[in-house]
Amino acid sequence: MKRFALFVVASLCVLLFGCREKKSEDAKLELYVSDVNVTAEVTSATITGKYSANATVDNFVVVYGETMDLKDGKTETCEISNNNISVSLTGLNSGTCYYFCFEYSNQKDSGKTDVMEFTTLSLLSPVVSTNEVTEITMTSAVCGGAVVNDGGDAITAKGVCWSLEENPTVEDACTNEGQGSEAFVSNITELEVNTVYYVRAYATNSVGTSYGEQKTFKTNEEVVTAPVVITNNVVDIDKTTAVCGGLIVSDGGSEVIAKGVCWSTEQNPTIEESCTNDGAGSEAFTSNITYLQENTTYYVRAYAKNSVGTSYGEQKSFTTLETVLLPPTITTKSVTNVNGTHAKCGGVVTSDGGSPVTAKGICWSTSENPTTDDAHTTDGDGTGSFNSEMTGLVENTTYYVRAYATNEIGTNYGSQMSFETLPFDNLVVTVNDVTFEMIGVEGGSFKMGAQNTDQYSPNYDEEANNNEAPVHDVTLSNFYIGKFEVTQDLWVAVMGSNPSYLYGPNLPVEMVSWDLCNIFIDELNNLTGMNFRLPTEAEWEYAAKGGKKSMHFKYSGSDDLEDVAWFGDNSNSMSHGVGLLAPNELGIYDMSGNVSEWCKDYYEAYSSEPQTNPQGPETGSFCVYRGGGWVSNAKTCRSTHRNSIDPNYSHFILGMRLAIDMQ
Length: 663
Known about the structure:
CATH class of the largest domain: Alpha Beta
Largest sheet: 6 strands, antiparallel
Number of helices: 4
Distance between the termini: 114 Å
Structural class: mainly beta
CATH topology of the largest domain: paralog of FGE (formylglycine-generating enzyme)
Mean pLDDT: 92
CATH superfamily of the largest domain: paralog of FGE (formylglycine-generating enzyme)
Strand content: 35-45%
């Protein structure tokens, strides 16, 4: 608060005659000032008054200073309104006597009033009051204060101070609640239990520190009670588990030695029933409630224990979930290894629906959405992946297949897959995302070899070599042979590298020895679980001639070699993608040209005796390869032409074709 201002009333109701300097005999300026009031503060003052004059006044100022002669006085322009004078002086010194007078002028004359005086107010210490002490505990209390008067100067510090002795000062324990004249609240801490204290508010300015009236209070006696604990809401409720916990609001004045939650199917559970122990201390805690019964209502309370006893939070209730049984969830695998009468499929049971899977498998039909009332397999029980094989299929027919799984709720089916069987047991195989096809060859008897001596005898060919004779009868069982030569794409999928001289994924693999081809076949069999092999020399010639569909062409599929084979005259000195020319009678490509092909047999001279499924000798120095290559002449591309070479030999026109027994 500001102190009462000093009002200086100069010459109340008495006119002040201005002293003037004569400027002109016929332009004399006469001015009178009255009702002069001075409101003085610590470092400022406001001067007001009234004037009357016989002419217009252009300039009206106040001159003021600390000496009466105003020799070094300062000047401040007055504000004039309706003959009222007002001027504010700032930057004054506190508790100081100042002298002043008014000076005035117009274009023709000037003058000034008599000197008057006023004294600025002096700075004082602040005035502060102390609040009542509240919120008293064993070790703390709350007090504060109000700055009644700042003493004319800024408050630089304020707060409360306390002591065990009367009249505490800031030299004792105290708070500092900052600057300014606003009221303040202080927390008094670290007190002794059951002890009398004296406290005073204080405020400080540049003059000094003042204190409010002294207040007295006594801290509470030490009282230990049971803890206070709150029970959290129950969350993550499942069929046999849930999560709860608690928050310790107060330890009751004694360390918490155990805490947790307790639960029961009866209300108001205690630690004598099922409970958790989540350690000591006053920190919040989370508890896992386990071994519950499904679809059951439980009651739960948090608890906390100290030296006085055990307290419980409010009771919460929850109901565990009920098992909802559903049919199993199952997906159908892709259909693979399709031939004329067989195919492979399977499924993955991803969920048992809450009840054990008692049967699973695949079902198929020539109608859509087959069920277990149609043809089906049974592949055990339980969840997980399984593989199935469809047998007894009809050639060249569209089938629909779905995986199924059964539990006590019922049978559920995976998505439907469709596929078409191949004519006469063709076989489609996929390995590492590369698919190849095997042509089913119906077995039978044929005359193997050629002769150039008797044009009226079977298999006469004037270009026949001596090792193609004698012509002899051979009987073969059903078998599969590759529709195409083994491509580089398939070789890399199995072996991981490409030995070929000419590169291209659909080009036949070459630069492969007989030994390396058998290593490739071993790896392929490991990947597929099948039993591929090289074709025997008899199987190769029978298939090249068209089997039971043979038209008795000179080359495999035609008497015009350029229709069916890449050889020296049309290859442009390179191999070509498989299957680009016409197939033979069985739908097999490139047997007369592109690359020559290893056979399973060791080489030996023909016998005239009839043979059934001949395999060649058990050992030998050379292995058979058949068919022409992209550098061959027409004679060596004939279906009966024979070649042999060391099994370790490799060449850029020498590749392979797969075969496999038909079960």
